[in-house]
Amino acid sequence: MSKAFVFALLAAFSFGVAPVFEKLGLARTPPSFALFLRAAVTTVFTSIFLFFESKSGKLSLPDFHSLVHILLGGVFGVFIAQYFYFKALQYGDVGQVMPVVGSFPVLAFFLSVIIFGESVTVSKVIGILLVVGGVILLGD
């Protein structure tokens, strides 16, 4: 089992557990404040991580273009996406919201083909169809 697969499984587990806590928290918390709290927790833990990484000499600053792209990813992937995700959880069931939110690989696949020229294979197309089918089935 590759390191990438292990980390992907750990991320999937974390993404699977988080909505349950967030749905419980959103019962009495506005989504905008929940977003603030989530960002604050992320900032604290990331700051601690960066502190120890800088002590080991592994920390390096990104170049300007990388910084811009990472910041734009933060705006879309953290701020905007999480706000809408929290609004969806506030009004919907976790079992219906998560499959739709989890369908983001479909858009990422199409953008990666257009922007990076990544290949379109039969297995990738089948995977996309399975994701879309799963969203339809779980959304009922």
Explain what the structure shows.
With 140 residues, the chain is an all-alpha fold. It has two domains: 14-93; 103-140, no CATH class. Helices cover 82% and strands 0% of the residues. It has six helices and no strands. Helix 2 (31-55) packs antiparallel against helix 3 (64-91) and helix 4 runs antiparallel to helix 6 (122-138). The two termini are 35 Å apart. The mean pLDDT is 90.
In short:
This is Transporter family protein. The protein is mainly alpha-helical and 140 residues long.
Taken together, the total number of domains comes to: 2
State the helical fraction: over 70%
Give the structural class.
Answer: mainly alpha
Overall 3D shape: globular
Could you tell me the mean pLDDT? 90
Assembly type of the shown chains?
A: single chain
Note poorly predicted spans. none
Question: Rg, please?
Answer: 18 Å
- Written as H for each helix and E for each strand, in order along the chain, the element string is HHHHHH
Largest sheet: none
Distance between the termini: 35 Å
